[in-house]
UniProtKB/TrEMBL annotation:
One of its GO terms (molecular function) is histone acetyltransferase activity. It catalyses: L-lysyl-[protein] + acetyl-CoA = N(6)-acetyl-L-lysyl-[protein] + CoA + H(+). Residues 7-144 form the Histone acetyl transferase HAT1 N-terminal domain. This is histone acetyltransferase. Belongs to the HAT1 family. It comes from Aphanomyces astaci (Crayfish plague agent).
């Protein structure tokens, strides 16, 4: 079985974009990550970078009569509204907005790449809630352990941090330190009870450092498996 993903912004750059393997597939195909009954099976997930909509293409050389139902296996790991209609996906891609729902909070440019943060109240903005739901479903393929029981925004923060880490210059200490502090603030909120139970400030700092180091190693592992980890020059 070959399982690949591609992220596209418009129809013109479809053929020029690199594909990569998802980091995790057990949430769709079981702990053994096996699909039975096919020869030459290839699964391609094409993701609209603007909306996180998904086009699913399944091809194979031969399929047994009792082969696994690939689409049924993947259904709960794909965003709502995924399609197998390429023309419909291309039409939606052509007309999709380049910015996410919500209000712009801040933005900046680094290495000719633009980054922006948007804010929305999910209970009041159906488009933003649907956008985040699609993002969360697609994050299953990149971040281990994400599931329905995880708080809704937790997967968003982890995706955001992991992608931001990819562009952080770790040789630039002020920039790298600012990123570490940003992540540690989130970890502090997430583990507040455990940290308060530590007693001394030094022990709390030690626990935060341990949590951060484990998380960064996890992010690097996922980025590496996806071929997205920046290599030192």
């Amino acid at each position: 079985m070959t399982n690949r993903l591609i992220v596209v912004k418009d129809a013109k750059d479809w053929s020029g974009q690199p594909t990569f393997h998802p980091a995790f597939t057990y949430h769709a195909f079981g702990k053994d990550e096996v699909i039975r009954g096919y020869q030459g099976l290839c699964i391609m997930l094409t993701i609209n970078a603007n909306t996180f909509d998904c086009f699913v293409e399944v091809t194979f050389d031969h399929r047994d009569t009792d082969a696994d139902d690939v689409m049924a296996m993947m259904e709960h790991s794909l965003p709502k509204g995924f399609t197998q209609d390429k023309e419909a996906f291309l039409h939606a891609l052509e007309h999709s907005a380049a910015k996410p729902p919500g209000a712009l909070v801040n933005s900046y440019t680094k290495d000719d790449k633009e980054f922006a943060t948007y804010f929305a109240v999910l209970s009041e903005d159906a488009a933003a809630a649907a956008y985040l739901d699609r993002m969360q479903k697609l994050s299953l393929w990149f971040i281990e352990g994400i599931g329905c029981s995880m708080p809704f925004l937790s997967s968003f923060h982890r995706c955001y941090e992991m992608l931001k880490l990819r562009f952080v210059d770790r040789t630039n200490e002020p920039e790298y330190k600012a990123f570490r502090l940003e992540v540690k603030r989130r970890l502090h909120s997430l583990h507040m009870e455990d940290l308060e139970a530590m007693g001394s400030a030094d022990r709390r700092k030690g626990l935060l450092a341990t949590l951060y180091e484990a998380l960064e190693a996890d992010y690097d592992r996922v980025l590496g498996r996806c071929g997205l980890l920046a290599r030192p020059e």
